[in-house]
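Cross-check.
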Amino acid sequence: MRSVLRVLAVLLAAYLLLSAALFAIMIQPPARFAGIIAKLPAPLFMILPFPPLWSIARAGHVSPGDGAPDFDLQTLDKTARVRLSSFQGQKPVVLIFGSYT
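Predicted model, tokenized:
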């Protein structure tokens, strides 16, 4: 009975450690996250709590009604940079947030 409890404790510790490592990977920037996650074995996603960890890791800090955080991005043709705050008070801006990973 004692050895069964010891094995269960080790398995629980390993599960918690792997879940914490997965969460640490999920909070990385998207490009880094994609590079790491692509190398992990697929069965790992069936064992670890991927969806709940993902919801927490990518929840963000913007609530409904909050102003959009300012950001600066390069244009698609890489000839200029665009800053969200430069449009304030000039014209409406539609922001679409999503994930490509």
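Residues 29 and 35 are 10 Å apart (CA to CA). DSSP finds four helices and two strands in the chain. Passed to J.P. for a second look.
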